[in-house]
Specification:
Helices cover 45% and strands 14% of the residues. The chain has 205 residues and is of the alpha+beta class. The strands form 2 sheets. A 4-stranded antiparallel beta sheet has the order 2-3-1-4, with helices on one face. Strands 5-6 form a two-stranded antiparallel ribbon. Strand 5 and strand 6 form a beta hairpin. Keywords: Coiled coil.
């Protein structure tokens, strides 16, 4: 290496960008700046109250948007998942074979399964769910559609693998959905909402 050679100046890696602050960070900075300006002067209590209420509403809105985005992302990651509920636990069982057996019964003889295993907390006298990840989303739709008729005498059933937020929403209207079903109104739970036959979110009274 020549002694007179100049060292190359290190630049920013190609394609890199300065990290931009998130929406919530920007909002917090804005309200912090305004809060400081308010504290420097004798601001009427009514105006200060309005400012604090506005800040609270804005941050609550941002938090709701973030929570919804995270739940949507988690829901998508479970898109091909189903749960087999109530299947008895046996010593040396093979969950993959069990999943194939059950899914064959609902009309999918050549189902492709990526993985299957017991999931959830252990409780005395109760078998844990078998969590199954299917290779094809359409197989999941078929299994959920056929399971009520095909498994009604088996002592176990197939259900969707819901996020905690979606499961809470589903259970919230459980009694109302049962009452509507008894009167001939059939709803299905999809994308975090109970929906009518037209696919639109159902409005409970």
């Amino acid at each position: 290496m020549e002694s007179g050679a100049k060292k190359k100046k290190r630049g920013r890696p190609k394609g890199s960008r300065n990290k931009q602050p998130s929406l919530s960070q920007k909002t917090l900075r804005q309200y912090n700046t305004r809060a400081v300006s308010h504290s420097q002067y004798d601001v009427p209590s009514e105006e200060l109250s309005d400012f604090l209420n506005e800040a609270s509403d804005k941050l609550e809105s941002i938090n709701k948007q973030s929570s919804e985005a995270l739940n949507k992302q988690e829901r998508f990651s479970r898109r091909n998942n189903i749960r087999i509920v109530g299947y008895p636990t046996h010593a040396e069982e093979n969950c993959l074979d069990i999943a194939k057996e059950v899914i064959n019964k609902v009309g999918i003889p050549d189902v492709k399964i990526e993985r299957a295993h017991r999931d959830g907390a252990r409780r005395e006298g109760r078998s844990r769910h078998i969590l199954v990840r299917l290779s094809f989303f359409q197989d999941k739709i078929t299994a959920l559609k056929n399971q009520r008729a095909k498994l009604q005498d088996e002592g176990y059933f197939i259900t969707d693998d819901l996020t905690f937020v979606d499961l809470t929403e589903k259970r919230k209207w459980k009694q109302q959905v049962a009452d509507l079903y008894a009167r001939g109104t059939y709803l299905r739970f999809s994308a975090g909402k109970w929906r009518g036959q037209d696919g639109k979110p159902f409005q409970f009274e």
